[in-house]
Each structure stands twice: as C-alpha cells, then as structure tokens.
Amino acid sequence: MGRYTGPSCRQCRREGTKLFLKATKCFTEKCPVERRPYAPGQHGQATARRRKASEYSKQLREKQKIKRIYGVSEGQFRTTYAKIQSLPGMPGHNLLAALESRLDNIVYRMGFAGSRKAARQLIRHRHLEVNGKIVDVPSFVVLPGQEVRLRTASRELVGVTAAMDQASLGAPLSWLAVDRDTFSGRMLERPQRASIPIAAQEQLVVELYSK
Which residue has the higher pLDDT, 153 or 21? Predict the structure, then answer.
C-alpha cells in the first residue's frame, strides 16, 4: 500500500488525539479534533458509544498512532521494529529512539521544517546535507556526532523561515544541538525515552508484535 495522501486531520480524529501532522492548524481553534472529537466517517459517533475496546484493539490503535506520528508506512514500521530486536534495553524505547533518528524527524526536531511531512519534502528535493554530503532519503538514520545542515541556497525558503520562527518559541531537546545562524545541527547522543516528547504507550506495540 502507498503512503496515505488524504486529510491529515482525519488521521488525528481516528486516533482521538492531536498527532501534530500539520504545521499550523493543530495549534488553532479550528482543529477538527477539538470540534469533532470522534472517529471520521458516517459511523464515527456511533463507534464512540460502543463497548469497551479489547486489549488487541488498544495495541493496534497505539501502533497506528505511532506510525502516523512519524509518517512511516506499515513496511517501514515493521522493518524498524525488526532491527531493534537485537539491541539491549527495552524494545519499546529502542523503537522510539530508532524512529527519532530518522533524518526527516531530525530535520523537524531541529526546527528546519514545520512538520515531518514538510521535512520529507525538503529532503527529497535535495535541500539537506549530512556531514557535507547531500542526502535525499527521508529514512536515512542519523548517528550521534553527524552534522545535518541546510544547503546555502535553500535557507531563504518561506517554509524554512516560518518553521524556524515557530521553533524558536519552544525549548530545544537535550540530545540535539542546533545552530540557527549556520542552519545546522548535530545529534549529541542517542535519544532516551524521557527526552522524546510524544505521548505514546510503546509497550503496547511490543505486546502486539510479541503475539
């Protein structure tokens, strides 16, 4: 199956929470999650009144939520989970750390793009360099110590300047160092769960894949 191309807000409503998939609308009163707090579709309101969700349903919904937050396909999500199986530590934490290490997420976290979707577009259009080399693969895994830099010719893009203005209002993450003057940044260390700002129950995903 290809990447989802429908309305981003529909995905947020399906998960019942803001996934912050769009750069600006999630922060306004027009957010559909607040105006229509039930699943999309003609049976959305009826679904909200059904009996208590099963354990499998909770696990599946949590997996779908995390997958949608990071904008990865089902195949990419499964591949990422398979790669972290041999790593020491808690599988759920390792899964989130692996997803956070993707180049599209790093570009978003550094404030060079207003959303992960916008970050993927920047990467595919060859606006980003990693250690001085152009990288156009959003799933590229950034390692601690590597430098991510916006190309000189791309620094005046409207989307980039708007994203950096918005990002300057928030607190930087402890595992990233960003130099806004040079439009560059580095991953200082592998992200730990306490420093990954998403509301997710990753252990439910581990339980789902352990069946």
Answer: 153
